[in-house]
Structure formats: C-alpha cells, structure tokens
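Notes for week 9. Today we move from apo structures to complexes. The key idea is that a small molecule is not decoration. When we ask for a structure prediction with NAP present, the ligand SMILES becomes part of the input, just like the chain. The input block below holds both the sequence and the ligand string. Read it once before you look at the output, and try to guess where the molecule might sit.
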Amino acid sequence: MKVALITGGSKGIGREAARLCLKEGMIVYILGRDGEALEETANLLDPEQKVLFSIQADVTDHLACKRAIDEVITRHGRLDLLINNAGMSMRGRVNETTPEVLEAMVHINFLGSAYMTYYALPHITGQKGSIIFTSSLVALHGVPKVAGYAAGKGALTAYTESLRAEVSSKGVHIGIIYVGFTENDPKKVIYSADGSLMPLSKRKNAHTQQDVARYMLKMIKRRKKRMVLTPLGHFSSFLYRFFPNLSDWIIARFNPTNAQYSEAN
Ligand SMILES: NC(=O)c1ccc[n+]([C@@H]2O[C@H](COP(=O)([O-])OP(=O)(O)OC[C@H]3O[C@@H](n4cnc5c(N)ncnc54)[C@H](OP(=O)(O)O)[C@@H]3O)[C@@H](O)[C@H]2O)c1
C-alpha cells in the first residue's frame, strides 16, 4: 500500500486531501500542531485507526519534521507522497507588519515545506513518488496587505523549479498548486500585522475544500507540474503575462480595508 503524509491534514483542504488519499487505498499520515484537531479528524476519517495515523508536530521546527518522517519510515518502511499543505496567512501593510510576523510567514509557508521535503526526499525518490506544494494566487502576483504571505508562498515557486530540475531524471514528481479563494474552516485564523490572531472575512469563494483536494489528486495521478485554480487565477496569470502594466494598475487599486478582512464568518 502506498503511504502519504499530508502536513496540515487536520483541517480544511488538507483534511479533504486525506479523505481522498484514503479512498485511493493509501495509508495516510496527517500532521498538525493541535492534538485535538488531529484526533477529531482521525476519528472522523478512520475511527478504527487502521489506515490513518496522526503526527503532532510543528513544521517550523526542522527536528520535528525529521522525527515525523522517521516515524513514518519506522512504522511503514516507505513514503510515496508528501503533500506540503500546512500554511497560514496574514493581513497587514508592509510598513505595519512586524519582523516576527514576517518570519512566521516565511517559516510556516516556505521553510516548513522545505524542511519536510529535505527529510522526505530520499524515501520519495526510492518510490519514484510525488511531492506537492500548496501555494496561492498571491504568489503569482502579490496583492496589497499580504506581502509576507505572498513572499512565503512565492518562494515555493523558485524552490520547486530548482528541486524539479534536480530530481525529475530520477522519476520524482514535483507539483505546485496555486489555490484561489476557497471555503474556510470556521475555526480558521490568520495573523494580523502585529501578530495577534484574527478571524477570517466573509467572502465569495470559488472552490470548496473538496474541489481543491480533487485537483490535488488529479495533479498527483497525472504527474502535473503546475496547476492554477479558479477563473480569477487564470485571468490574472494571463493579464500579468501579456499586460503586466495593466495588471499592476488593477492590483494597486485593490485595497480592501482591515474591517472587511476581519468581519467574522
Ligand atoms: N483557504 C484558502 O482560501 C486558501 C487559498 C490559497 C492557498 N491556501 C493554502 O492552502 C493550504 C491549506 O489552507 P486551509 O484553508 O485548508 O487552511 P486551514 O484550514 O487553516 O488549515 C491549515 C492546516 O495547517 C496546519 N498548520 C498550520 N501551521 C502549522 C505548523 N506550523 N505546523 C504544522 N501544521 C500547521 C493546521 O493545523 P494546526 O493549526 O493544528 O497546526 C491545519 O491543519 C495552506 O497552505 C494555505 O495557505 C488556502
């Protein structure tokens, strides 16, 4: 049986990806910081805990990432799929965002994925498996008030390109998915510029969490390198590529207020 490890598998998109990986007959490990959330998801997806296991770990701690991979290998002897999905967003203008928030954004969204990849790569290579990175439309073109998040997700683009160039001849699949507005977990929180946690805004979502998980699985099966989701994602990619000045002009005028952002779901 193939073995998958999904960071951020306790909630949201990661939980739906875990559900689909189980349907595909894989053994699934979900990883997150909150033990209760992990337990809740494990009970929901595999009440007998036969094919789904949880690992409580923080991806910003590289030794915890090593322990997580070691645990999977000790228990199951192989790793076929790593979905680097753990991530967290923020709101705040560049001049208001504290260095601590900036560091947290880069740590969670970029370094956490890079640490997991570093420890998983020898095992994934042995299986000619897949490593998937969950990015965001803001990595295609930064928008106001999310610079730290956009930078963390943007770094994944360059990282995956270098990684792919190094490992594709060994049969390893590297995929990056640029996710657009997706329904949020009711408990989801994000960082404000000063580091306090704030609830999410009401907004129109283009996708459900299940939709995004289905795209991820499609990407894995077809070994696709890159996937941009939502009509907005396709439109903004096209605009940025062929009309970069118009794209800059439109985005500079998109400046939502913090009040809009902080309106609770
Ligand atoms: N939802 C959207 O509209 C959207 C749009 C674009 C991109 N994305 C990206 O898609 C991914 C999933 O988003 P989502 O909306 O499903 O998020 P979510 O509901 O907030 O879930 C995030 C998951 O990541 C885990 N996590 C966060 N920080 C972690 C850390 N330091 N170490 C280990 N686990 C950590 C969380 O568990 P704990 O808190 O218990 O650790 C949770 O399981 C993220 O990378 C996000 O940036 C989402």
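DSSP finds nine helices and ten strands in the chain.
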